Amino acid sequence: MPGITDSTTRDGLSPAGLARDDLTTGVPDGHPVDDGAGTVRLLDPDGVRHPWPEHDRWLTDVDADDGALLRLLEDMVVVRRIDAEATALQRQGELALWPPVLGQEAAQVGSAHALRRDDFVFSSYREHGVAYVRGVAPVDLAREWRGVATAGWDPYAVNMATPQVIVGGHALHGVGYAMGILADAERDGAPDDDTAEDGAADDGTAAVVTYFGDGAMSQGAVSEAFVFAATWSAPVVFFCQNNQWAISEPVTLQSRVPLVARAGGFGLAGVQVDGNDVLAVLAVTRAALHRARTGGGPTLVEAVTYRRGPHTTADDPTRYRGAAEVEAWVRRDPVDRFAAYLRGRGVLTDAADAHVRDVADQVAAALRTDLAASETPPPLAIFDHVYALPHPALDAERDAYARYLAGFADDAAGGAR
Amino acid sequence: MTTLTLAKALNLGLRRCLADDPSVVLLGEDIGRLGGVFRVTDGLQAEFGPHRVLDTPLAEAGILGTAVGLAYRGYRPVVEIQFDGFVYVAFDQIVSQVARMYARTAGTVRLPITIRIPVGGGTGAAEHHSESPEAYFVHTPGLRVVEVASPQDAYTVVQQAVACDDPVVFFEPKRRYYAKGEVDTGAALADSPPMGAARVVVPGSDVTLVTYGGLVATAVDAATAAADDGVSVEVIDLRSLSPADHDAVAASVRRTGRLVVAHEGPHEAGVGAEIAATATERCFEYLEAAPVRVTGHDIPYPPAKLEMHHVPDLDRILDGVDRVLGRVPATGAVAR
Where are the transmembrane segments (chain B) (predicted)? Predict the structure, then answer.
């Protein structure tokens, strides 16, 4: 299978060392990224494209389509702009919290572009880029963080579950959904409708991608998800964004071996990809999805990337890492890298660049406007949707609280006491 | 009418669910070829196939978590937790995911999952095989919690639970698995008592005795013994713990003026506390005495040879009846 390495043969068994590098040395934390045969990288940090036939073959349509290439860039730029706008909105008190995605745009946009419409995504709380590509409105990304909803969208409208805060808990949901795809095929005797949109080889069933981070790899639920997925050869891709940090804990505290090395032991295929290379991410995710759709079983993709901002806007990363480390990853910036490549190809002209920035400005402005217009639900809405069917005790509680609230209305009508 | 054990009644109920609705799937450890350690799913995999009745890896969080995903996809999963004490491993998936998904998604994602859990002691089992964890789930909004006591209820309520669009934690008292009773397998579900309704098992006029699950039979025996002593005890099988049928309890307490609640689970913050507190709020002026709870102790479940000191038996329930009648002087705040 192109892009799939046998993780058991990787040189990943030497101790990574739990002592962290000096914050001032500029040496990034984390396991060394294998820049040799193991880690898939098609664009170097300067934007120079290197051929790699077994991966390039998943990109033939994109490589031949300037519009598709520009769309990848545009989505990354827009996601970065949404992220910056939301961060600013948090600082201005419009959002209670925001988990920034700065630095991970290629991992998210590249993988999300590999998905078909009938695929389903289960993600954690930082996958703003994936959600945007799936069609989630930017204001819907922010509702939870504004505190006006526990989730911002209808999962079935965009085939993406709403954000999951329990780290790794949703990996199992993705596997269960994928088992349901298999059960549907068993029951109906035919795979799902093929609604290919991306021009790649899209035969086979729908599939699932579950997104989580390096910290989640330590959670039991993720390991159980690997077991169930392998047992049933479920059509699921586990997409781990190793962004090096779980709040203040480096990835070396989660694992003594590269995360992708765990795949083999569970019976998963494993592939490590440069998560800041949007083309490489798109290629390996397409390959993994194709494998899933056609009965080849689940894949663990480890996208090596970096969370350049804080864990959330409540976090202070200067307490646990140095500026030099962040700077080293700025030089691997996913947007700059891809833009340089497109400039070199003549695809990104000044006019195209202006257009992309204009789109980003409009999306950010709409986010700000829509957020200001988003209303806090009425108090009694907290009792809605706890149960699908009537629950007498809760109904009585709601009625009692409604009477209590109505008492204030009477007070207001009667004037101050 | 036919005479069935509670386990066989569950088996027939589940069989009917599988036959009537192709979206029903069963998941659990050893439920396929073995038919479950209590044989509740006996023969179902052979009849409906391994795609409908799945033997899972030994991973309770995995069973519940994949059930969430299956339900997301439109299935109605029925999961079996092999023993009560094993459900704690799946606790996060139940309380953080199963119970909340409908609220989290503002009503767009329904998780009609039935979580079957053999429950309680009295079987001489090893550690982790005799727990009564129902209070944890009653305390969790978004879940419905039921416990069946009779083969008839086992047959009907399991079908109601599977048909319910809310997640249902479905407790099965394991020491009653092989107790027999009359079951009308021809009755339509619509004609059966609803899942949330309590049932008066023995009518009475002096004391209301509320219990559920494995203790219902013991409570009926206690009522018989009390009648010999001239005390008329009304036994109510709560059937549903969330929502609890507080109306039925209140109606009875208003007639009897006295309430005893009995269960196997620990005393502190148990279901009995909720029943007693609610009845007190609603019926204070009717009460002749403070409600009395007869429960398991606030201890980890004891070794098998001592469990008779933990699980309320007929005499402890009668002692509770005596206390609520004022026949036994209060011995202090810890008198139970």
Answer: none
Sign of the torsion formed by the C-alpha atoms of A407, A410, A412 and A414: negative
Token pair recorded at residue A29: 């934390």
Whether A207 is covered by a domain: the verdict is: yes
Distance from CA of A284 to the nearest CA of B (A): 25
A292 found inside a domain: yes
Q: Answer yes or no: do A290 and A171 share one domain.
A: yes
Across B168-183, b (16+ Cβ under 10 Å) vs e yields bbbbbbbbbbeeebeb
Q: State pLDDT tens for residues B275-300.
A: 999 999 999 999 999 999 999 999 99
Closest A-chain CA to B140: A386
For the entire predicted model, the pTM comes to 0.92
A245 and A109 in a common domain: yes
Closest by Cβ to B106, choosing from A149, A173, A176: A149
All structural domains of chain B, each given as residue ranges with its CATH number in brackets, are 2-191 (3.40.50.970), 199-325 (3.40.50.920)
Rounded Cα gap, residues B12 and B151, in angstroms: 10
Q: Give this complex's ipTM.
A: 0.93
Closest CB to B108: pick one of A156, A180, A221. A156
Whether residues A385 and A287 fall in one domain: no
User: Which residues form the domain of A390?
Assistant: 381-415
| Full DSSP string of B19-72 | HH-TTEEEEETT-SSS--TT-TTTTHHHHH-TTTEEEPPS-HHHHHHHHHHHHH
For residue B68, the chain A residues in CB contact (below 8 A) are 172-173, 176
